[in-house]
Amino acid sequence: MVVGARRNTVFFPATFLSLFVTSLLLTNGEAFGYPSIVKPPASWTNVVSTDFSYWESAGVRPILVNGNFVCGFHCKFEGTACLFAISIFPSSFGGNSSFSPQMVWPANRNNPIGLWAKLELSQEGDLTLQDADSTPVWSTKMADKSVLGLKLTHEGNLVLFDRNGETVWQSFDHPTDSLVIGQRLVSGQKLVASISATNWSEGLYSFSIDDDGFVASAESDVTIAYYRFFMYPTRSQTGQFYAELTKISFGLIFPGSGVSFIQLGCDGHLRSFGWVESNWKGVKDFIGDQLNRCDYPLACGRYGICLEEGCSCPEPVEKNGPMYFKQINPSQSNLGCYPDNPISCESPQWQRLLELKDIDNPGLSILNSLANIPTDVQSSLIPQANHLSPAQIPRRKKRQNVGVVVGSTLGVTFSVLLICTFFSLQINNNAKDVEEDYLGHISGAPMRFSYEELRVATNNFSNKLGEGGFGSVFQGTLPSGVQIAVKCLDGFGPAKKSFIAEVETIGSIHHFNLVRLVGFCAEKLRMLLVYEYMCNGSLDQWIFCRDKALVLGWQCRRKSILDIAKGLAYLHEGCRQKIIHLDIKPQNILLDENFNAKVSDFGLSKLLGREQSQIVTTMRGTPGYMAPEWLNSVITEKVDAYSFGIVVLEILCGRKNVDRSLPEEDTHLVSLFKRKVEDGQFLDLVDKCNEEMQSNAAEVAEMMKVAAWCLQGEYARRPSMSIVVKFLEGKMDDENAYDFSNPPVPAEVKTLGHQMDATAVSASPLIPSILSGPR
């Protein structure tokens, strides 16, 4: 297959073609004449089209097109250097707009290809890129996988998938300098800026995420951070921290309206971009709003000095002395400087240090690190080549150099020891804080164990049950014979907050549908929580299981929903203070030996006084389960009701809220639920892996009403969990118990009552007050 412009049989005038292109931009790839999915074997060659093409005029030779994304060869106008890449183009624009795809994912950014290069999808399923001379350039390295095809998703994700529709490889796992809507930045990944707008190779700036939040660095080294945004990042089931870019948020950062992607620029700025006035324009500068120009380590390039009035090179110390650095381009001072003589860390007798005086530049220490330049404790020093020959260096000077080296070494050693001692004391103080300052003042705290007691109880932590948000969980047995689950939390910071929240929240409360905290251990750096043992594990293992022998039946699922509602109702209304859980999801619902469901993991919970109706707090929880009011950080206990609604849907449908292994239109359960309700086909969503669920479709439909009721966009219109309990127990026959006079229409889902299949409704008697769905 040869990539290029499609040969037209009729010549279209340019104006007509422009209108024709505009009308197509809201359609799928096939409307452009390019597929979104291909199966192996297939190959494409990078050749220039001889026909007029709006793609070619934008430097793009498409292979796959889907929605607003195109995947293919992307070439510079001034040359033949090309990349295999994905670009995003505007969804719509006026007649005066230009066709402007913006590259968001290049595969071979550090190794451009030329004309006649070939992309090949082999029969074995590996996607490889070769230059014209057959030199290997890039590969997915998936030849040993059973790949059925290659597709470009509507979100801009290039995916290799197998016969089961499972993702084998995807471009979303290999970000470059940009993220698109729906893409995550995961711990261990990073965005790396290009060298310049015309040089796509990896540059000096990077942006990543860790357990504290976002960090922007120079030279792709997180130890040279020039910006940090501390937040409470989300942790996945695999233990990785991540932030997902949506239309309204990226972690706790809000990218602005109309955003299509974010990009780390060659200047170190992280910006969100949208299509504004016929062009891609920056909507928000995440980092630039917090930093000054000179706070960026390379604002004036390598060896450059950033001053308020502009950029300059290091000046000689001696008046009228030699200039050791010169500007790369005097007309563009921000490009930096270059040394007149090479700088090297070898042969120190040939070098001496020059002090830069009267320089107050926060980014200078980073600049020095980039240049491998030593830094004095009091001032910034830059080494320069010494123009004296060995014969011209006096012996006394050499002895002085030896003294300087020895003195510097001793000084550095002492400084390192001092710093290590300081951090050791800080860590010990932190541990002491946990033991004394916090736990000593918690009323009704549970039993306190020693680390040795728990080590013996767990047989030296040998039986691992799984991993939680901040550590691993082990099974154990107390001397009394009581089985326990011991959660070992890792480190301080968020883990310490989680530990305190657990002890403070559930240490003194007891309810049948809450996992009981038996005790805790806090010894120096060790923080352990001891729970009652739940032998049937977490709910997600039972409702998402494809093994029919292990799938929960309808009655058990119905009871689980009621159990969860009872536990939440107690937290919200039955305690001395309101307790908002903030992380309700199937993984945090545990089942005992009789399959009684109990709410667990209170590491993110918040306490509210009885007089408080809402609280302002940082965003926390699991994406997909978080209520929309989190965007303004002002929340009530109704955020738990929203999460409960998502969990109810998952229990009834037997699938995850977000399942990327499904076709794109079915990925998000709530959106699919809304569509099925509008089409009168919502019973299609009932879990098909269990015949009992199918035979009780009418009751399942009633439970779907509860989910719809809890998923309303306006939190005030969601029911309290105590009302949900009454509804589930059939105790709402008194219409005065709740105001049904104003039936809500959830933003996510239409009221189900009028959409129900007549035969399904008649199969189960309903009380008059709920025939049209929950109000």
Automatic annotation (TrEMBL):
GO terms for cellular component: membrane. Residues 459-728 form the Protein kinase domain. Residues 49-173 form the Bulb-type lectin domain. ATP binds at K487. Residues 1-31 form the signal peptide. Belongs to the protein kinase superfamily. Ser/Thr protein kinase family. This is Receptor-like serine/threonine-protein kinase. It comes from Rubroshorea leprosula. The lineage of its organism: Eukaryota, Viridiplantae, Streptophyta, Embryophyta, Tracheophyta.
